[in-house]
Design brief:
98 residues, mainly beta, 4 strands
Amino acid sequence: MVVKKQTVGKALNLKAPDMPKPQRLQKLDTPCPKCGQKTIVCCHTEDGATDYYDNFCHVCLNPHCDYAQYKMQYSGLGQESKGDHLCPFCGRDVYSHN
């Protein structure tokens, strides 16, 4: 069965409303743990001016599935520590292009 996907923005608004607009997205080639469709997107953004926070989210783009994981974590006083920005859900380095 072909599932019409939601846009990432719409899926985040509905399933993870606390997630700020993502700066980095990566479609994952793994099935959603809830619906089994390969419609998971790993999202990341940084918030802050003095103190920085990493926001991570995995969201399913299947409109019939409510799967989403969201986590915000303190990342430090600046953006220099890019090696520490690994997604807590899949381990992806959000600054790599892979």
